[in-house]
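queue> pop job 88
queue> type: inverse folding (structure -> sequence)
queue> payload:
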C-alpha cells in the first residue's frame, strides 16, 4: 500500500521529497524462492532398473536438475545419474542396482537461481528371469529325444531389456563344467552331440547396462530337465 499527500512547499523542499520518493520506488524485488517440484513418480517398489522419472511443472522454472543416488547424501560416487532437462520427465539411462535408490529434482530459473529439491525413493526389486518353454520339463525321462535326429530346441520367455541370453547344459544340476551357449534370441538348438542320459539346462538374461564391460548382469535363472537317447 502506498500513502501520499500534497502540500505547498518551497522548491528546495520539493526537490528533497522527490529524491526520497524515487529512491523508494526504484528498488527491484529479489527473485522469489522457487517451490520444490511435486507429484514425483515413480515411488515405492518396482522392478524397472531404468525408470522414467516425472514430476509436476514448477512456476518460474525454465529447466530442471535431476539426480539419482544410492545414498540419501547424494555424495560423489553414490550419484549414478545427474542430468539437466527442460522437460518434466527424465529417462534414467544408467541401469540402477537392485535395492533402494534415492532421486530428487529441482527447478532452475532463467537467471540461474536454484529452487528447492523435491525428493523421492524407489525400491528396485530383482527382475524376473526367463521361463523355459520347451522342451517340457522331463525329470523322469519319459520323453526321450532321439539323437542325432532330434536335437533339443531350448525355448524361453523374453525378458524386457535383455541384451543376450546365456544357456548352460549339464548332466548334473550343479552346472559345474556345463556347456555354455549365448544368443540374442529366445531359443537355442544344442549344437554339439551328447551321449544318452539326463541333462539339465537353465537360462539367464544379461541386461543392457552402460556401466558394465560385459553385456549386463544375470537377472535371474531358471532350469529344466530333459533326456537324450543316442541311436
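queue> result:
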Amino acid at each position: 500500500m502506498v500513502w501520499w499527500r500534497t502540500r505547498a512547499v518551497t522548491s528546495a523542499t520539493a526537490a528533497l521529497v522527490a529524491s526520497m520518493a524515487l529512491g523508494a520506488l526504484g528498488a527491484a524485488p529479489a527473485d522469489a524462492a522457487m517451490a520444490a517440484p511435486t507429484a514425483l513418480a515413480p515411488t515405492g517398489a518396482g522392478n524397472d532398473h531404468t525408470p522414467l522419472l516425472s514430476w509436476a511443472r514448477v512456476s518460474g522454472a525454465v529447466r530442471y536438475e535431476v539426480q539419482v543416488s544410492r545414498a540419501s547424501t547424494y555424495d560423489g560416487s553414490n550419484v549414478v545419474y545427474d542430468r539437466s532437462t527442460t522437460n518434466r520427465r527424465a529417462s534414467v539411462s544408467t541401469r540402477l542396482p537392485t535395492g533402494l535408490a534415492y532421486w530428487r529434482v529441482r527447478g532452475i530459473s532463467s537467471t540461474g537461481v536454484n529452487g528447492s529439491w523435491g525428493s523421492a525413493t524407489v525400491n528396485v526389486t530383482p527382475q524376473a528371469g526367463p521361463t523355459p518353454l520347451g522342451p517340457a520339463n522331463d525329470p523322469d525321462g519319459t520323453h526321450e529325444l532321439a539323437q542325432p535326429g532330434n536335437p533339443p530346441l531350448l525355448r524361453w520367455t523374453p525378458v524386457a531389456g535383455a541384451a543376450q541370453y546365456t544357456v548352460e547344459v549339464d548332466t548334473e544340476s550343479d552346472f559345474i563344467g556345463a556347456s555354455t551357449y549365448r544368443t540374442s534370441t529366445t531359443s537355442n538348438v544344442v549344437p554339439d552331440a551328447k551321449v544318452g542320459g539326463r541333462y539339465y539346462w537353465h537360462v539367464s538374461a544379461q541386461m543392457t547396462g552402460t556401466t558394465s564391460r560385459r553385456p549386463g548382469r544375470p537377472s535371474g535363472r531358471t532350469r529344466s530337465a530333459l533326456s537324450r537317447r543316442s541311436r
